[in-house]
Amino acid sequence: MNIPEELKYTKDHEWLKIEGDEAFVGITDFAQKELGDIVFVEVETVDETLDKEEVFGTIEAVKTVSDLLLPIDGEIVEFNEKLEDTPELINNDPYGDGWIIKIKITNPGQVDDLLNAPDYKALIEG
To answer: What is the pLDDT of residues 60-82, one digit of tens each?
Structure first.
């Protein structure tokens, strides 16, 4: 199970890679394995400012459709358009080319509430 140390995590199995006042958001290796083959990602919230835990999109796998929840308050500034044609990037490279959105962080203090890698590992190992 790949859990990069430099990322932050949520209990909903999403990750954040923070770069200054922006962050990339995706789903974890654990989440993509649980979902199975991802066939479609929909994000219609670009240029919207959402609160933590609001739905910013959906991810569809062969088995199920799941809501994507924003890990912290932010403005969605970009959707990874590569996912329109190749949603399987999330399965193949969840922490790299499989990122889903980029946000402008509007409440930096919320980052402290996210899980670090060891805490996330403990969560998924039960």
So the answer is: 999 899 999 999 999 999 999 99
Domain boundaries, the chain: 9-120
Do the Cβ atoms of 114 and 52 come closer than 8 Å? no
Q: CA nearest 114: which of 2, 13, 3, 4?
A: 13
Q: What is the mean pLDDT of the chain?
A: 97
Give the Cα separation of 80 and 58 in Å (integer). 13
Could you say which of 2.60.120.10, 2.40.128.280, 3.40.190.10, 2.40.50.100 is the CATH number of the domain covering 9-120? 2.40.50.100
